[in-house]
Write a structure and sequence with these properties.
Layout lengths: L1 H14 L1 H26 L3 H17 L5 H8 L3 H12 L3 H4 L3 H5 L8 H11 L7 H10 L11 H6 L6 H10 L6 H9 L6 H13 L6 H7 L11 H14 L17 H15 L20 E9 L3 E8 L3 E4 L5 E3 L3 H18 L2 E4 L5 E7 L8 E7 L13 H9 L15 H13 L4
Parallel strand pairs: 5-7
Antiparallel strand pairs: 1-2, 1-6, 2-3, 3-4, 6-7
Length: about 450
């Protein structure tokens, strides 16, 4: 019976479509008059607009991670009205700007308000401002073109050596249209940057300026199959490089991200693309830091550090390779066997006591992640400390301090190392770890 009723209703609706249309036609004048009557009150009042701006501002600052970017972008629709409200919230001190949060800061340049832009620059140039990456991105994305005559050009040039990879990426993006030969050399220097995201951005900038050989940096990333414990860093590099190449080359020879980097069909595809780009020319010689490498084996302990103020560090203590620094093709530092064994023993002792544990403040700015390979398992134990902008000096468990101290002692602090990932490594690591979990005894 239920089925009969449903079918009957559907047939009735279909067979009476003309009646329904006529009915709607007869109602149209009435609906039109109702809309005309309601029209004067449909426009939002000034108080309604102010309330909507306040709601969007609050959600952009304090909403869930999924809501904040949408709310921040919604503020742009109110133009100068929202800009004035944001200016009051920003204040004159970069410390006040922190209250806006990274999602709102990331769109501020799109207001195209000179006062907002000045305050963004004031914050971006302060090393202790925690959202410099978001500020640099919005400044770069809305920079005046051409950049060369702009007073901002020198500022972006200074950011090319910033400690944060995302700031260096933004600076390279802002300077992509420069015609100065000295800046051209600076941008080419980024092809040897310690961070692969920066190298990829530099390759794209140089390719877009007419040097197609820069695509070889991206093609090399498509060969990567490295990992940092549970992080599939090779696949991340392949994914981003493939997206960048697809926007620049019409044919990638059938390269398939679903296959492994070493798959014969993928290797054949890369060879075909290389020949298409070069013709009869010789391929460029890539620096060692940009070359794909065979995944390491024998990693015992790893430390991943990411700080919104102090950058990123990836270190592994390896049974046969000593200390490996960075992802992809890491820098290698020979260490005494006794030093590696001490660090591995302290790490396993801490892991046995703590297990897979996460220690949180308010997440969103800094974290350190310790990976420990047990002797009887191929899965690492992961101990993570994460925090927000405010310091939490007691975040790291005291049990980890002897291990952290031993790690720091085993790290070189070379000021003139050949590999940029080793320059002042110990001091950089000490500063980052102190900022995240407090001083190490």
């Amino acid at each position: 019976m239920v089925r009969t009723v449903i079918v009957t209703r559907r047939r009735s609706a279909m067979s009476s479509s003309g009646i329904l249309l006529c009915g709607l036609c007869s109602l149209a004048p009435v609906m039109g008059r109702a809309q005309e009557t309601a029209a004067p009150s449909s426009a939002p009042s000034a108080s309604d607009t102010e309330a909507a701006i306040e709601r969007a501002l609050d959600r952009a600052r304090t909403g869930s991670p999924a809501v904040r970017p949408q709310a921040a972008r919604r503020l742009l629709q109110w133009g100068s009205l929202a800009a004035e409200r944001v200016l009051r919230e920003m204040g004159e001190d970069p410390a006040q700007l922190v209250r806006l949060g990274p999602d709102l800061i990331a769109v501020l340049g799109e207001f195209h308000d000179a006062r907002i832009r000045d305050r963004l620059w004031s914050a971006t140039l302060k090393p202790d401002f925690p959202y410099r990456g978001a500020a640099a991105r919005t400044l770069a994305g809305t920079a005046a073109a051409p950049i060369d005559p702009s007073p901002e050009c020198a500022r972006f040039e200074a950011l090319l050596t910033d400690v944060l990879p995302e700031v260096r990426v933004a600076a390279a993006d802002a300077l992509k249209s420069t015609g100065r030969a000295d800046l051209e050399r600076r941008l080419r220097g980024l092809l040897e940057d310690p961070n692969d995201r920066v190298r990829r951005k530099a390759a794209c900038v140089i390719f877009d300026r007419g040097d197609r050989s820069a695509a070889f940096w991206l093609l090399e990333d498509l060969r990567r199959c490295d990992a940092f414990f549970e992080l599939d860093t090779g696949r991340s590099a392949r994914t981003e490089s493939l997206q960048l190449l697809q926007g620049r080359l019409s044919d990638l020879g059938g390269y398939d991200l679903g296959r492994s980097a070493a798959d014969p069909e993928n290797l054949a595809a890369l060879q075909a693309v290389q020949e298409l780009i070069l013709g009869n020319d010789d391929p460029p010689q890539l620096p060692r830091i940009a070359l794909a490498a065979v995944p390491s084996t024998g990693d015992l302990v790893g430390l991943e550090v990411r700080s919104c103020r102090h950058g990123e560090l990836f270190l592994r203590w390896n049974a046969s390779g000593g200390l490996l620094v960075g992802t992809g093709n890491p820098a290698a530092v020979a260490l005494p066997v006794a030093s590696i064994e001490k660090i591995a023993a302290l790490a396993r002792e801490a892991a046995a006591a703590l297990g897979d544990r996460h220690f949180f403040g308010i997440p969103g700015c800094d974290y350190e992640q310790l990976y420990v390979m047990p002797e009887s398992s191929d899965r690492p134990i992961v101990i993570r400390c994460a925090k927000g902008v405010e310091p939490l000096p007691d975040l790291r468990p005291q049990l980890l301090n002897p291990l952290m101290s031993a790690m720091l002692s085993a790290v070189p602090d070379e000021s003139a190392a050949q590999d940029p990932r080793l320059v002042l490594l110990r001091s950089r690591l000490a500063v980052a770890l102190s900022a995240i979990g407090g001083p190490i005894d």
